Amino acid sequence: MNTLTTFLKIIDWQTTAVAALALLLTFICRHYGFVFEMPTGLIGIAVIFPLVFSIVTAFRRREDALKYFASLKAHAVALYFAHRDWPPAGKSQAVQAEKLVRELLTAVANYFQADDQEQALCRVYGVIDAFSLAHEQLRQVGVPANEVSRANQYLRAIIIEFERMKNIARYRTPVALRAYSRLFLNLFPIIFAPYFASVGYPDYPIAGYIVALVYALVLVSLDNVQDHLENPYDGVGPDDLRLNVAGVYTRMITGNTAPGEAVLS
Fold first, then answer.
1. DSSP secondary structure of 163-209
2. Fewer CB atoms inside 10 Å of the end CB: C or N, the chain?
3. Does residue 41 sit within a domain?
4. Domain residues for 185?
5. Is the pTM for the entire model greater than 0.90?
6. Within a domain: residue 43?
7. pLDDT tens digits for 160-202?
């Protein structure tokens, strides 16, 4: 049932339009006797190969985004523990660090889902700036300089991973390749209508329509899969990243467990 539900998510108006056009042109070609065989390998070369190449590339970018986001979260948690555990007794900066981790994860999620990304980007770097100032407070309460330097390295890693995630959102599948795939995807019902009309003609008239419908569903579904993977942050596809994790992570790191005590479930 879950498989069917997920599949239905990639069926949209473009699927319906291309399938309807393929069926209509198959009917017209049969009506006028315009039927002949065509090399079906042309579909693979002209449409399927670039589509699959785009899907593989988009999937690799999604996996990279997952890796960078995991690293960003891990370094943010490490900064919280640094502010909690490194200062001398009675001078813990845990409350401020918990607030900054929450604000950072929230700002990162909002950036990738915001319409005004310039303002959202300023918010992300505003939180990073606050973290940098918090490291100076660590120095003031007695944290050794080498540990403050390590905290700054954690912050640097967060900046790097965020910028890598941002590049994935900004630089996607090459525009020329995407235009090429879209063009031939929409042309294939017209080009191959005589071939669809020739399938089972004239003894099995329904066969040609079934083949035309299957080709349309397969090709447009592949195109929609690629579209869903193209931006792994927009929350449209079932495989997109779940960026709204600020609440989960801050509850996890600020639970009732004492420092150093194992959490058993």
1. HHHHHHHHS-S-HHHHHHHHHHHHHHHHHTHHHHHHTTTTT-HHHHH
2. C
3. no
4. 1-34+174-230
5. no
6. no
7. 999 999 999 888 777 787 788 888 877 888 888 898 988 888 7
